Amino acid sequence: MRLARLDRPLPDGDRLPHALYRAEQVRRFDRLAIERFGVPGIELMERAGAVAYRLLRERWPNARRLTVLAGTGNNGGDGYVVARLARAAGLDVRVLQLGEADRARGEAALSLTAYRDAGGVVEGYGTLPRETDLYVDALLGTGLERPVTGQWAEAITALNAQRAPVLALDIPSGLHADTGRVLGVAVRASATVSFIGLKLGLFVGAGAEYRGELHFSALDVPAQVYAGEIPAAARIDWARESRLLVPRSRIAHKGDCGHVLVVGGAPGMSGAARLAGEAALRAGAGLVTIATHPRHADRLNLDRPELMVSAVERPDDLEALIERADVIAIGPGLGRTDWGRGLWEFVRTLPHPLVVDADALNLLAEAPGSGPDWILTPHPGEAARLLGTTTAEIESDRLDSARRLQARFGGVVVLKGAGSIVHGPAPRVPAVCSDGNPGMATAGAGDVLTGVIAALRAQGLEVDDAARAGVCLHAAAGDRAARAGERGLIATDIIAALRPLSNGLAEADR
């Protein structure tokens, strides 16, 4: 069977497509390629298997013993192609079949027959072989909607317990293609190669935990296939969003670069407001004032004199500060005592652009309202309080949770976490940030994000652009800081990386 000339699988990073799709959308692309553009289904399967095989030879060139775990659907069909090509190249190949091979239909059945005609043997699954250099996960694909059980769950659990690397075809088996939810148990892949369209579930929920190194191939389907579909979301990263920061005028002064007012820092929590303020300066704000509790106001900027600090006892004390501010960031260390509540109730009624975080979000949850020009930055726990639900429910479908938050509270919502989501009003599609790392799960990182977004908004970016660019700059700064290791990364390490990144110096110290 002739194999088409293929685009190469792409490594995780800048060259991955930015459009993210739901599984049903990708199935429509598949049908259009077949029915409207005359690409036979078996040809698409051959292309997918060839791309996967080429990737495994490049990624694991010393692998000689290959075990393919195959299901009965099209994902299994892709696996049979990999097995056939590997066997033809002289590799020691075993195919372990889950489900009855005779249940394979359509292109999967053709692929199975081609493998057997080439001399390949299909074994029923019993246990995993002890001596294997590489496993290929071709079990379940994107159509899974219910929890994995029985022999399938046993096989996936066994696969996760062994040491050899695993290449997942299209998506790790057991991972929901739309939400990234683990359906009982899922394959922890060393690498995943996704076909035709990038699946949303690879970037949200547990997707980043289970996908491993991500690769992609469009399988040479005609570009017109994608024309009629609006992506479910857009993948964003700093490499792309950095274009929003244009060079400054040679005659700019600090007033041209925006004045951020940070409101927060109850007794015992002054550090949160300080982190937000310093992050705003490092992200380019011309002026930053911190309105904080009188108990520590005179000490807050001792080692950062560029920050202006004002003691505020009551809401009225904010009036003069607000007149000079372009953007107000409220919430870091605000607390929920009468002091914090009073400041929040005063600020929430103002016409200024707002960035709302931390305890300001908790206070908003107690008395909900909407605002057209604010950016809300909840983590999953705060999102749960805002929607009157549980953190588990928020995490079960993060994109839908962000949609519900935006519909209820207006403005732009940043749902923080692995694959932070930015959801603004239609018609712009929601965005999922693919930068960032687990080291950023550290105290104060959210306060830094608040300052970064406020600074970009103060410098003139529109509300949705400020949220997207801020999320990506913050995440990229976390990645830069993590070059010294993720464990032990602290919020001030992220702040230190903001300046070179926002000036296009990301490569300077590599």
Quick tags:
seven-stranded parallel sheet, 19 strands, twelve-stranded mixed sheet, elongated, alpha/beta, metal-binding, 510 residues
What does this structure look like?
With 510 residues, the chain is α/β, with parallel strands linked by helices. It has 17 helices and 19 strands. The protein has helices at residues 23-35, 41-59, 74-88, 106-117, 150-161, 207-211, 238-241, 270-282, 319-324, 338-347, 359-366, 380-387, 391-396, 398-409, 445-458, 463-481, 491-502, and strands at 19-21, 65-70, 92-97, 122-124, 134-138, 166-169, 191-195, 198-199, 213-217, 233-236, 259-263, 287-292, 308-311, 327-330, 354-356, 374-376, 412-415, 421-423, 431-433. Helix 11 links the parallel strand 15 (354-356) and strand 16. The radius of gyration is 26 Å and the shape is elongated.
How many helical elements? 17
Strand order of the largest sheet: 8-1-10-19-18-17-16-15-14-11-12-13
Q: Judging from the principal axes of the Cα atoms, what is the shape?
A: elongated
Biggest sheet layout: 12 strands, mixed
- End-to-end span in angstroms? 46 Å
Bin the strand percentage. 15-25%
**How many β-strand runs?**
19
Rg on CA atoms, Å: 26 Å
Report the helical percentage. 25-40%
Q: Could you say which structural class the secondary elements and strand pairing correspond to?
A: alpha/beta
Q: Report the average pLDDT across residues.
A: 94
> Could you name the ranges where pLDDT drops below 50 across 5 or more consecutive residues?
1-7, 10-14
Oligomer: single chain
Family: In the N-terminal section; belongs to the NnrE/AIBP family.
Binding site for (6S)-NADPHX: 74-78, 141-147, 170, 272, 333, 379, 447
Binding site for AMP: 416-420, 446
Domain YjeF N-terminal: 26-227
